Amino acid sequence: MHKRVRLNSILSKKNHSLKNTRWILVALLLFLSVQPTLGQVNQISVHKKSQVLKEGKKQTVLADCFYSAEKGTFVAHYLEPMEFVKTTNRQGEMKIYFPKTNKVTIQQDFYFSSENELLHYFVNNRIDDLGLRKEGFRMSDSRYDENYLVTTWAPPEGMKMISKVELVFENMIPIYASYFGKDGKILRKIYYSDYYKDHRLLLPKRITEITYTSEKDSTIKRTIFSDIRQNGAVDTDYMNFKIPDDAQITQ
After folding, report:
1. Residue stretches of the chain with pLDDT short of 50
2. Count of domains in the chain?
3. For the segment 204-222, what is each residue's pLDDT rounded down to a tens digit?
4. Which of 27, 37, 92, 118 is most enclosed, with most CB atoms within 10 A?
5. The whole model's pTM is what?
6. Quick check: is 149 in a domain?
7. Residue numbers of the domain that contains 45
């Protein structure tokens, strides 16, 4: 009799586990299936204010950013602490133009690709991994922690610093990411909050990043997006920005 009760208890736990697993799989499938329905933003612009606190010193950076999903181009007009214009494309060609001196620097690296910009992921509704797949990560686990969906991502072979990344979703919207080192300690935390929402776009207006540079020190970066414009409301002068032909190329 006792054996039967114990067996029933074990089977009950297994069934409960299977139900949880099925529910997570269903949730993930729904998550992936609803994303394309939002993809109706062809171009977007935002005003970006970034504040970095490092070693007790604070630096503020202001820029107007423009992204074209159709062309795959990203343009950032930096206003402070100095003026310059940065342009990138899908192929990773980056140009930095300084209007005051009419000089431009050119670099090529896939790291600079416009498809690595945060706006790219949210405009194209690729928020289930926020670019981790493209970096070679693979999802190794998923679970529910109360009302939060937590997905775990294993790094590609050869990545020495990171052991895993966890993404946390609330109502299928990313709200937190944590990067773990090989010793199991968190190297970096990212909080996504204060979302802008309409029928076409989800975009966090506040992103807070905490990077632990040592056991006693960290770098904190807070980015705030404002003046969010879509499609026809975007200023096309910078969206279609062209560096002057007579600009001097420098290293």
Report:
1. 1-19, 22-23, 26, 29-30, 32-37, 39
2. 1
3. 999 999 999 877 789 999 9
4. 118
5. 0.81
6. yes
7. 39-67+120-228
Q: What is the DSSP secondary-structure string of the chain?
A: -HHHHHHHHHHHHHHHHHHHHHHHHHHHHHHHHHGGGG---SEEEEEEEEEEEETTEEEEEEEEEEEETTTTEEEEEEEESS-EEEEE-TT-EEEEEETTTTEEEEEE-GGG-GGGSHHHHHHTT-TTTTTTTTTT-EEEEEEEETTEEEEEEEPPTT--SEEEEEEEEETTEEEEEEEEETTS-EEEEEEEEEEEE-SS-EEEEEEEEEEESSSS-EEEEEEEEEEEEEGGGS-HHHHT----TTPEEE-
Mean pLDDT of the chain: 86
Residue 40 is predicted with a pLDDT of 78
In a domain, 247, yes or no: no
CATH number at residue 206: 2.50.20.10
pLDDT at 215: 74
